[in-house]
Specification:
This protein has strands spanning 3-4, 13-18, 26-29, 39-41, 46-50, 58-61, 68-73. It is mostly beta strands. The relative contact order is 0.42.
Length: 74
């Protein structure tokens, strides 16, 4: 089940990192993200995005209890 990264927060850039303890992939995309169209993050991998709002980023995971951490600049 895809989830929104965060509530509406105006930003300039965000870096998302998949937890090292993840057992599957995380898929990063918009509100239609799936394993077929998302940007794949393996455990400990990161992606940086220049984007205006955190709420436009959605995540989907291969397995339960997988997650990410993120840092952004507003």
């Amino acid at each position: 089940t895809r989830v929104q990264l965060s509530s509406s927060t105006a930003i300039k850039t965000v870096t998302i990192r998949a937890y090292s303890t993840n057992t599957g992939l995380i898929y990063v995309g918009d509100s239609s993200v799936t394993s077929a169209n998302g940007f794949q993050l393996s455990p400990q991998e990161t992606v940086s995005l220049d984007i205006a709002n955190l709420s436009s980023i959605w995540l989907d995971a291969d397995s339960n209890n997988s997650g990410v951490s993120y840092i952004y600049l507003a």
